[in-house]
Amino acid sequence: MNTPAATAAPTASAKTWTKTADRPLRSWRKSASIWVFAHVVGVPVPWHAVRQTDGAELLAFEHQRLLALAAAGERVPTVLAFDGFSLTTSDIGETLDHVLHRLPEAERLALMCAASADLAAFHTRGHWHGGAQTRNLTWNGEHFARLDFEERLQPGMALATVQVYDALQLLLSMARYLQPLGADAVRAVLQAYADAGTGGPALRDFIAHLLPRLGWVSKLAAWSPRLDGSRELMRLRTVLDGMTAFVARGAKP
Fold this sequence. Notes:
By secondary structure, this protein is mainly α. It folds into two domains: 16-90, no CATH class; 96-251. 56% of the residues lie in helices and 8% in strands. It has eleven helices and five strands. It has a three-stranded antiparallel sheet with strand order 1-3-2, covered by helices on one side. Strands 4-5 form a two-stranded antiparallel sheet. A hairpin with a 4-residue loop joins β4 and β5. α5 packs antiparallel against α6 (159-173). The two termini are 32 Å apart. Residues 1-9 have low confidence and may be disordered.
């Protein structure tokens, strides 16, 4: 498995993707749920950053981000056409989520750690994603690439805060694959991030302050028999245990 620090354009594909300004945008309810989640985990995402009302503005923002990241040598879709109403980009392969779904359970952790390390390197080069879930990463067997850059988290949020948010998005999007592997797998994914870049201390400090808040969520959910045995809560508790181990490891002299 190769996750190099050097970057290059993703392998070209004949398949293309087109977004238009008149596509359905995020609903008020979905926007509110994202905003509440971000604030629950301690990330002060501005309301205007999650509430989507202008499709053309979102396309223009994503267009500029794709051009800037490509110019920096990052692996992102190539912009093939943009006219203010539609944005056509190249295909960059199968998403990491689909790849993980197909892999045998025993082979998943290595790839998840590699994705976490790759995100750390991306951050160390001074970038942020804004939608770092596994559905917005691709893996071609050698390299990761990134897609979907319409989240307007900057300007308005500190770069370090957005990068921590990226790392949490990635980790939580892996929760369904991590839960069967246990808390040590969660710790390993977080440690891979810490070892591969400069953002480890900031992530560890943020998680240390986040743990009591998420612990209360877990305790409150335990009052409901339906929630207490749910897959979502089982995943959350595994993540919490792994986060606790990650923070404790950093605290050792």
